[in-house]
Every structure is written in structure tokens, then in C-alpha cells.
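Ticket 4471: requesting a sanity check on a complex prediction with GN1. Repro inputs:
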Amino acid sequence: METKDLQHILEVASRFAFDEPIVSVYEIPTGHINRTYHLQTEAPRSYILQKVNTVIFKDTAGLMNNIALVTEHLQKKLLAAGKNADREALQLIPTKQGEKYLTVNGEVWRLYLTITGARTYDRATSNEMFCEVGRAFGAFQRELADFDASQLSETIPAFHDTVARYAYFEQVVEADVAARRAEVEEEIAFFMARKQTAGFIVDGIADGRFPLRVTHNDTKLNNIMIDDETGKGICILDLDTVMPGSVLADFGDAIRFGASTAAEDETDLEQVWMDVDKFSAFAEGFVGGLEGSLTENEVKALPMGAYMMTLECGLRFLTDYLNGDTYFRIKHEKHNLDRARNQMKLVRDMEQKMPRMNEIIESYL
Ligand code: GN1
Ligand code: MG
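Returned C-alpha cells:
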């Protein structure tokens, strides 16, 4: 980290309501959107400082209000259940002025208390671990079932509206601003051939088959802290996209990322497929965590939820590649194209495995 960046981070940190001197700072590079820093203090406490991507999150007041409301709701429930609210829900540290977040020169920063004795994983090290992740995401949904969704701002409109994602994709292909279209005609054709399924989730919400719930919408494995001792998922992170949506998106996105045998940007596609045992383990935890609150239509549609979220994410990566990489943070020139091809491989694999996934899910009906 450059000295001037470090100085800026320390200056930002000094505006939040804590006094322990900071002894070290490092960047946590995993997220594709915000920038995240770990601040270690002299005390055993450490903090997570995040710079919010204000190009993507335009209504930061609405966003931060959502996070404050959701974390307060979760903390109340944990306390009522006699649990450790500091470890099992995120806790925002206000600024010295008592604000939920800090605005400096147009930058938006927020601070959380670090959860100790737990960590995130980019890959599940066992099926049991992934089952516990499923249980935690299911439980998160259940805890939010009585949360008044009308209080929430829609932080990114039409976030998992795959039909809208397709419409935008077609515009981007047409505009071809980065002059990359000719290079990816095959990938474009792949997605266009699957356009007819785009309405699977949104149409089901519109016609009432899939109830609107308060959902997380970004259930990547690395968005959950896993307890070092018990191996259980204890705290859900990255609440930026908590909004009304379908449970299928939460189930599906978790499978897309966590049941893959490889990283999201693995370029050796022979290493990439969906692990049926991981799918099965997650489903067991997730359905269990929801304690019978899923409807029959939802349970039946879980495999399609996984398929839809993988298709949508691949489409988003390709859209961003065609746009000249304006959305997801990239580490090299073709990073978004690599990610898109990786998701395409998963989509093809899921098409083949759909009967097996449906069989697994049948036992929950
Ligand atoms: C982004 O912020 P992060 O890295 O957890 C994205 C998700 C994508 C994911 C793909 C706000 O998640 O929707 O599924 O990348 N978040 C946003 O890895 O767009
Ligand atoms: Mg994240």
C-alpha cells in the first residue's frame, strides 16, 4: 500500500468512534465492488473499514440506512435468544459525530467491528462446511422473515431481474463501446440461445408462485464468517444488496459460487464443474435453516434457481467485458471474459445435471 493511501486510511479511521491506536493496516482484496481494509489496534480488537463504491451504490444514505436497520434487527433477535450479538451479526461503529457512516470529499466510508475467531473461505473445504453455510444463509432468511420490507431502499434496482439484465446486455452488444464484440460472438450466441429462460424467477414473483421475501442477494461463500472452532457459519457479511427478492436467488448464487469445483475466474475449464455432493450438502443445510418456511413451488424451483443465477452472473461478466470493465474490479485485461467463460461452463454442466439436482431436491417436498 502506498504511503499516501495509508495516510488517507488512517485519517479516515480517526474520524470513527474508537480510540485504540492502530498498529497495522492491510487490504482484503476479495470483493469485486467495494474496497475493504483490516485495521488492527493495540487492543485485541480490530476493525473492518470499507470504502463504498458510490458509482454502483448511488443512494448511499438509503444503503447505509438498510444496513443499520438490518443489523439492529438481527442483534435484537440474537440478544433475545441469549446469543452473542457481537459475533453473530455485523456491528456498525458510528463516526465521532454519531453518524452511521462518513463522507469525505465525496467518498463514503463505514466501519465494522471485526468478528474474532472466525474467517471467510473462497472454497469450502468439506461438504459439511458447505452444509453449515447453507444452514446459516437459510437461518438469515428466517430471521428476516418478520422484518418490515417497506423500510428498505432498493440499493440496486432490478438487481436479480434477469429479463432486465438481458435487455441491457442486448443494448451493450449493440453499442459495442469497447470494440470487443467481434471477439466474443460465440459467447454472445451462448447467452442469446438461453434468453427464453430469463423470466424464470421474475415471472414467478409477478404471478405469485414465488413470494417476495427479504433476501441477501449476494450469497457468495466468502460473504459468511465461519467459526474456527465449531466450523459453523456464524455471521453473514456484505449486506449491501439486502432487498426484497426471491429465495431462489440466495440459494442459487450460493450454489453458483460455492458448489463450483474451481474459482470463479479459473481459466482451465476442465477443472470447472458443479459438484453434485456440494449442491446436496448446501440444500440440506439451507432447507433445514429455513425450518419448513419454503413453499412447495420454491423447493421445486431450487435447482433452476442455481441455474438462473449462474446464467445471470455469466451474462453480467460478459456485459461488463463488452462495456470496457466499468463494474467489476478486474486484475488483468480479460478478467471479465475469463469469468464469463467460467460461468458458461458451469451453466452447461448444470444443464446436464438438472435431472440429478431435481432428484436430490425431491426429498424435501
Ligand atoms: C459482486 O461484492 P461482491 O464481490 O461480494 C456482485 C455480485 C456478484 C459477484 C460475483 C453489488 O459481489 O452480485 O454475484 O460480485 N455484487 C454487486 O462474484 O454487484
Ligand atoms: Mg462480498
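Notes from triage: The first strand starts at residue 22 and ends at 28. Leaving this open until the requester confirms.
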